[in-house]
Design brief:
This protein has 424 residues and is of the alpha/beta class. It folds into two domains: 254 residues, 3-Layer(aba) Sandwich (Carbamate kinase); 147 residues, 2-Layer Sandwich (VC0802-like), CATH 3.30.2130. 35% of the residues lie in helices and 25% in strands. Strands 3-6-2-1-9-11-12-10 form an eight-stranded mixed beta sheet, with helices on both faces. Strands 13-18-20-19 form a four-stranded antiparallel beta sheet, sandwiched between helices. Strands 15-16-14-17 form a four-stranded antiparallel beta sheet, covered by helices on one side. Strand 1, helix 1 and strand 2 form a beta-alpha-beta unit. Helix 1 packs across helix 3, helix 6 runs antiparallel to helix 7 and helix 9 packs antiparallel against helix 10. The chain is globular, with a radius of gyration of 24 Å. The structure holds aspartic acid and magnesium ion (MG). The site of magnesium ion has 3 residues, from loops.
Length: 424
Amino acid sequence: MALIVHKYGGTSMGSTDRIRNVAKRVAKWVRAGHQLVVVPSAMSGETNRLLGLAKELSPASTTPEVMRELDMIASTGEQVSVGLLAIALQAEGIPSVSYTGWQVPVATDSSYTKARIESIDDQRVRADLAAGKVVVVAGFQGVDAQNNITTLGRGGSDTSAVAIAAAMKADECLIYTDVDGVYTTDPRIVPEARRLHTISFEEMLEMASLGSKILQIRSVEFAGKYKVPLRVLSSFTPWDIDINEEAKSGTLITFEEDENMEQAVVSGIAFNRDEAKVTLLGVPDKPGIAFQILGPVADANIDIDVIIQNVSHDGKTDFSFTVHRNDYARTMELLQNTVGPATNAAKVAGDPKICKVSIVGIGMRSHVGVASKMFRALSEEGINIQMISTSEIKTSVVIDEKYMELAVRALHKAFDLDQEATAA
Ligand code: ASP
Ligand code: MG
């Protein structure tokens, strides 16, 4: 008998028929002798609908008072789905009980709409499991020290599931979703993209932070911190497929470098169009200049990603960085009105139509020439690289948005990602 956490996303919970299917699948696991905690998301579209209602009443307000109410509202999506799933399980003859985040409780800090889980009291859940029940816990939500309802950020049910699995030392956390695993890249862009049987936790973390939307990044951080065995798999297989087959399907996130693991140098290609580039031209190249530019940006709470400073000519240099596209207008305004004049910049320029394409792989640690292979593949397609950033296990380039798909396809091919990796 194992203790297993299942997480079902919004699409899997999208209608009463689908919820019935989830219940049948969970029932199969229970009948195979396992203890189950199930963490569903709100029915698909529901969180958007709820937040949309709030927006009708208060389009732009972000006061703490409004943020508190947003969480009050958004959390009801999951409250409905846990109740429905518990009823569906009971209809299958499986004893079950549902809880909201505050009933568990899942304790969080007070950062409304992006709260962090601080601790989980699992006593109540354990008692129910011991009494033979399936426990259905609302994803995406918790409660702060003052008993205010909080939510964990969009996509936060993944984090709820992994955190519960960590707190309860579950044997495995299965994330059932509308894709059947983690792919070398998005199959909508590269039809030859291949599902990975395993991916290392570090690669998954990079992929999530670089724009792959499969798992909320915090859930991956949690899995890494507490070594939660995590698997991403499809909720669209027939519910009655063989349980052993199901248990091995999808993509397993691994922690140890295992000899039998796929050993591709590059495991995947991530991309996103979420960033915009800004440049200060002709700023004096002197100590403190980067701080003079980026300090005010950080003070305005704007996240900076890729940064590049050119070699100076006649004591002047150009300085570029990227920000989230939502922050583009604000950043440009700040540079034009404040930072530009303060640093004596000759000109401020901006380009919101860029994208970032990244190759990710732990094999990059031990192989040379990976970045140059990337640059060659891009140059063969005539794609100009505007910025480059690297870490131990990834290389990212910023390019013109219109070449994104071409770049992803070229890189997928250059690194043979359409072929099953062989042991290195
Ligand atoms: N329902 C929430 C959202 O749409 C949380 C989740 O689905 O994980 O973001
Ligand atoms: Mg999700």
